[in-house]
Please model this.
Amino acid sequence: MKINTALILCAGFGKRLNPLTLKTPKPLLKINNVTLLENCINTVVKLGVKKILLNTFYLSDEFYNFVNNKNFPVNIQIIREKKKILNTGGGILNMTEHCKDNDFLVLNPDTFWSEKYASEINKMQNFYFSNKMNNILLVVKKELSFDQNLMGDFELKKNLLDKKKPKNFIFTGCQILNKNLFNGYKVENFSIMEIWESLLKKNELYGFESLNKFYHLTNLEIFKKLEDL
Model:
């Protein structure tokens, strides 16, 4: 089995990167003359995904212009959150209602994705389907993070995640989720962490370890450092 649809989360305000994000949404900021979103889309294309759903709220028109001006070899559909921002959980649920697939690759473009992640994500995908899972998160050891100020999110043991200290692993911004996880939820503002917490209580939140150096755009200081690489 294979993931056919990827969801890319692009609706945030990017306030920690003001003033850069006052006129440019965070995913469209450039590092080495390439936007974060383009790196993300190129990684998804490398995976052979057939369709991308991209959600927007803040500066939505910038995303339409970006996609229209590029000739990506994949079907990209923009889902605009019109009345209010839906947060990560509500945003994902809203996008899944525009597609018939049951399993989705979900990516946060704040991470500096590249083709080197493709083999890891493919392995994670194979692990997900072979073990008949409904969730799995790509995580990385804190020591591999470019931003050493990032706090750990989880511990990982035998592909199970928990929140016991010392929390040596960081969520990379890549996960695979099944639509059934959202049963009982409405399209409204809620965080995906609500679903994670529910899975943690049942000891059913799964993880897959990335061995790549982790670059994540958190603030202006990190942006400047990434530009200098």
